Amino acid sequence: MSKVNLNRIKSVLAEKNRNGKDLASHLGKTETTVSRWCTNEIQPSIETLYEISKYLKIDIRELLVSTK
């Protein structure tokens, strides 16, 4: 089964001129964990998505790939 992209964390970080290292530091997570989120290898919890959206000052829905 091929990997399905469920989140847009990597894209949004680029749009906001932020990087995974800063996000990891802000959330108290490892850079490896954030990297795995960015490659859709694993997914953050809903609570973590909420914290990411607050950090990036965006609506949480912008972090998810649309199902339309």
Please give a structural write-up.
It holds the Pfam family HTH_3. This is Helix-turn-helix transcriptional regulator. Residues 9-63 form the HTH cro/C1-type domain. InterPro entries: Cro/C1-type_HTH, Lambda_DNA-bd_dom_sf. The mean pLDDT is 96. The protein is 50% helix and 0% strand. Helix 2 (20-27) crosses helix 3 (31-38). With 68 residues, it is mostly helical. It has helices at residues 9-15, 20-27, 31-38, 46-56. It contains 4 helices and no strands. The chain is globular and about 30 Å long.
What layout of secondary structure does this protein have?
Blueprint: H1 9-15, H2 20-27, H3 31-38, H4 46-56
Protein name: Helix-turn-helix transcriptional regulator
InterPro entries: Cro/C1-type_HTH (IPR001387), Lambda_DNA-bd_dom_sf (IPR010982)
Domain HTH cro/C1-type: 9-63
